[in-house]
Amino acid sequence: MLRSSSIYPGLKCVFVMGLVIVLHILPANAQDLIIDVVSKFEGNLTVSSGTLTLRVYDSFGTDVTNTVDVFFEYYAKQNCGQPVKNTITYPFGVSNPDPIKVTISNLTEGVYFYRLKAVSGSLSAYTQWFRLGIVKKDNTLPVASVTTTSIDTVRDANLKTVPELKLSGTATDDCTDTVSIYWEKISGPAATLVDDFKGNLTLKDVAEGDYVFNMVAKDDRGGITRVAVTVIVRPPPVPPPPPTLTVMKAFSPNQDSIDDWWKVTGISALTDVSEVQLINQFGQPMGSLKPPFIDDEVWDGNQFGKPMPEGAYYFIIKDKNKQEIKRGSILLVR
């Protein structure tokens, strides 16, 4: 219930159905006029015209005999642009007691903010502003897009799941429609969806597997557009097994190009080797040989540039953590 001064006389407006409206205006000699909107129609219509039916009478139910001017005023917001700045007004001079019928037609597609005004003598009254959308009979579906349609990632070997992944998208529609966005999981293992009723989706604790998610854009007339996003979480790569080390049992460093080096096949490719310790036949350490070992050649039979005598020698291969990888004996032949 809104009251106005005699400068803005009251008007009672009843929206019966569609755009059918009944106005009640107090007599011209009333001290105050009252605007009472019993019901209203607003929202989106698929028609571009309608009839406004008005009847003017006083608070006792007596028809106002004065001439009444009725105005249909609106701001038009068409083609999803800004509202026009000038209010467009349609005056209609009529006399009671005959019902006043006003037909509004040829409203183009767009959004209208409208009100009704009635003038009787020196008094006038307004309804409040209402929103009316004129839309196509065939609903235009929302236009939806996502930042990426696929994510392919690898789980960290130290974690059971991928802690967090983010998906995002946007949607637009005809300017007469309101679009909401939500996400749904179509397939895949367990995952926690956070903020799934917004454009930005956070996935938490994503297990290994193949997923399909839909971003759903829905307008207020039921039009739905879905955009699929695939998510693949792969297991961490399995490290290749260490190469097999094959140790020469004997070698003869006599410069004849035949078995001049003691070789350990596969040691060049084993990046975890830190050293090869040598021990002579008396159990005395001879020092350590360090990588890199080119072409798997480890020892040339010398120590500090001096040829070592024939006999049995021993070796220990250790990794970077000083753990033993392999040990055994070598026969040096001159």
Description:
There is one protein chain. Helices cover 0% and strands 54% of the residues. Strands 5, 7, 8, 10, 11 and 12 form a six-stranded mixed beta sheet that branches. It is rod-shaped and about 130 Å long. The relative contact order is 0.11. The chain is an all-beta fold and 334 residues long.
Features:
334 residues, mainly beta, Immunoglobulin-like, 3 domains, 6-stranded mixed β-sheet, 5-stranded mixed β-sheet, 30 strands, 0% helix, 54% strand, rod-shaped, disordered N terminus
Short structural description:
With about 325 residues, the chain is mostly beta strands.
Layout of secondary structure:
Blueprint: E1 2-4, E2 11-17, E3 20-25, E4 33-39, E5 43-45, E6 50-54, E7 67-78, E8 88-95, E9 100-104, E10 110-120, E11 123-126, E12 130-134, E13 143-146, E14 150-154, E15 162-172, E16 179-187, E17 192-194, E18 200-206, E19 209-219, E20 224-234, E21 246-247, E22 250-251, E23 262-265, E24 273-279, E25 285-289, E26 297-299, E27 302-303, E28 306-307, E29 311-319, E30 324-332
Parallel strand pairs: 2-4, 5-12, 14-20, 22-30
Antiparallel strand pairs: 1-4, 2-3, 6-9, 7-8, 7-10, 10-11, 10-12, 13-15, 15-18, 16-19, 17-18, 19-20, 21-23, 23-26, 24-25, 24-29, 27-28, 29-30
